[in-house]
Specification:
Blueprint lengths: L15 E7 L2 E7 L11 H11 L7 E5 L5 H10 L2 E6 L2 H11 L7 E5 L10 E6 L7 H9 L5 E12 L4 H8 L3 E9 L2 E8 L1
Parallel strand pairs: 3-4, 3-6, 4-5, 6-7
Antiparallel strand pairs: 1-2, 7-9, 8-9
Length: about 200
């Protein structure tokens, strides 16, 4: 069984196109085998994105960690005119994100390989992530606990986790260093906004 967080060079490519509409804006994304939620736009990602967009600032620097084919970062970049870096450990996901970036002429964004923050140098105003739960709790905690090393002093972290995948226990663990609030919940998914204490 191939997982979306592994690089399997033998996995056959079957390019497909997914579509998404937000208000009056239409988006299309290339997807493929070997990436997260290849056949449809994941509900947790959609809930995270739409919860964020309700109060999103324009013209800021955003980092999308575990970007998959770029759904969250691209929509944010286009709709808020923000600069977006998108990173993933999966080479095919990054390749798809680069293809998807090219579809939006006004988009100021870059995609590159990074295991969590390994290849991240700059600082951001927002980090947003639908963390890779199946990789294990330690990787999820690494992404969420280390976020503030890569955020500006008033930066914000947004993330989504399902209740049955440890949403409440993970948020409780973070409470000693972060001020966390639940900004949305639906169908077992919890969307969190976090700032540094």
């Amino acid at each position: 069984m191939s997982h979306y967080f592994e690089n399997d060079n033998n996995l056959k490519s079957e390019l497909k196109e997914l579509s998404y509409k937000y208000d009056s804006s239409f988006f299309a994304f290339y997807s493929d085998n070997g990436v997260f939620s290849k056949n449809y736009i994941d509900y947790g990602s959609k809930l995270l994105l739409e919860s964020y967009l309700k109060s999103a600032k324009n013209n800021i620097r955003v980092l999308d960690v575990g970007c998959g084919y770029g759904f969250i970062g691209i929509v944010i970049g286009v709709l808020t005119n923000s600069y977006v870096d998108m990173v993933d450990v999966n080479k095919r996901a990054v390749h798809l994100t680069e293809k998807n970036i090219k579809r939006y002429k006004s988009l100021n964004a870059k995609a590159f390989i990074s295991d969590a923050y390994q290849n991240i140098n700059g600082k951001y105003d927002v980090i947003i992530t639908n963390p890779p739960i199946r990789v294990g709790k330690s990787k999820v905690l690494e992404i969420l606990e280390s976020a503030f090393d890569h955020l500006n002093s008033n930066g914000e972290l947004y993330f989504v986790i399902r209740k049955d995948q440890g949403a409440l226990s993970i948020s409780k663990r973070l409470e000693s260093t972060q001020k966390i609030e639940i900004i949305n919940k639906d169908k077992g998914y919890f969307v969190f906004k976090s700032i540094k204490l």
